[in-house]
Each structure stands twice: as structure tokens, then as C-alpha cells.
Fold this sequence. Notes:
The chain is of the alpha/beta class. Helix content is about 40%, strand content about 15%.
Amino acid sequence: MQYSKIFNYKGLIFDLDGTLINSMPYHAKAWKQVANEHGFDIDTQDIYAMGGSSSLDIARHYKNLGFPVGDEYAYVQRKITIYKSNIEHIQIIKNTFEVLKEAKERGIKTAIGTGTRTENAHLILNKLDIAKYVDVLVTADDVKRHKPNPDTFEKAALKMDLKNYECLVFEDGQLGVRAAINGGFDCVEVKDDDFINYFEIDR
């Protein structure tokens, strides 16, 4: 897509992990460590494939496969603790962040729609000085149905007082891309600090 076309939308909605920040390797590392602590191993590529899912959904995925996850909430909390210990290593993804900043400068509404918990989202947004560019934050705690359901992005649009078709979503995960499309949002797919696909909904 043409870069300038991005700013024709009234609102931009960004996923967080893997889209605005390079946190996915540290999420994958934390999931692998907590699995090992519980006596089993995982393929970290599965975590990338489930990008956009809530932490509880990921824990339940492994529990449903028969792995000894135990208490799901305790399992997730342990994963979060491990992840937080690596937050200092997380960096901003430059191209997407520049779009966020320019949108804010142009007066375009901005939102983050993430499968991350609210506490963790605020922690990382403040640490990396991103929060001041974001008008609306929707996290895993704000919706019952997570990606690939469109609820996260729909709630972000609603909180910006915009229609879905007035917003453009930026996503790195396939579940997130599907969530955007399922909700009738145009979507930019992000990979390795580049915009690789543009999905425009027929209306």
C-alpha cells in the first residue's frame, strides 16, 4: 500500500507484541521456561502462531493437549513473572512506531488492541514512552472473546467513537489479522519491521 494512504483513516489500531514492540521472543522464552518448570517442553513457534491470544487461552491450549499445566491462573502468573524479568531488553519496532507518532501529530485517533493483560501493557507502554501517543487501550482484560474474534478491535473503534471501516489495524499475528478481517477492518500485516501485506475489505 502507499504509505500516505495510511493517514486517510480516522483511526489507527495497533497490536502491541510483535507489532509495536519486539517482545515476542521474550514471550516465547517465558512460555518455554514455565513449561519446562512443569515438566514438559514446547515448540516456541507455536507461541508465535498463537500471537494475539490471551495468556489464559494459551495456558488452556496446552492443558487441553494433556500437558501438566495445573492451575491455569498460577501457570499464567508464573509466565508473566518470567516475562517481566526480561522487559528491559524489549525495544520499539521503529517503522510501526513512526506511523503511530505521525498519526498522533496529524490528529488521527490511535488505539492499541492487545491480548496482553492491562497491567503488563501499561508497564511496557510507560517504560518505552509510548503511552503518550495512544488515545485508547484495549487489553485481554477488556473483552471476553479474544482474537481471532474481532471484539478487541471493535471495542477500540467504539472507544474512539469510530466505525470499523474508518479504522486501519496493524497486526503481526495471523490470529490478529483474521480478527481484523472478521470485524470488517482494513489491515496492514507487519513482519520484521516491515509492512508486508495490506488487506482491504470489500464494502
